[in-house]
Design goal:
The protein is α+β, with helices and mostly antiparallel strands. It is built from 3 helices and 4 strands; from the N terminus they run H-H-H-E-E-E-E.
């Protein structure tokens, strides 16, 4: 009687290890080096909080390593045709407003 694991059992072990490895790689690859709460704290110390109100929500862009925080400009800073966001750069822990304006501006 052979008590050594059979080929089917080894195959299952290999599949489990591969799945766990892929899950770990994806979890570490897509995570932000800064939490949303940390990004909001950085934004509160920038022009974003001076020129508007941070809503406390946003999206992390892993390609540019930035947090794009939802932002409503104060009435004296509203720019027609623009949909601003507060952009927090995780590498430098700095933030600025990206006005995200569209359309042609007539001279």
């Amino acid at each position: 009687m052979n008590t050594f694991p059979t080929g089917g059992f080894i195959t299952i072990i290999i599949i489990v290890v591969a799945v766990l490895g892929a899950w770990y790689w994806m979890a570490t690859k897509t995570s932000s080096p800064m939490t949303l709460a940390q990004a909001v704290a950085v934004a509160q110390g920038s022009e974003c909080s001076v020129k508007g109100t941070l809503l406390g929500t946003g999206t992390y862009n892993q390609n540019s390593e930035t947090w794009w925080l939802d932002f409503i400009p104060k009435s004296n800073y509203v720019v027609s045709g623009c949909n601003p966001a507060c952009v927090v750069y995780t590498a430098s822990s700095s933030a600025e407003i990206n006005w995200r304006c569209t359309g042609l501006v007539q001279p």
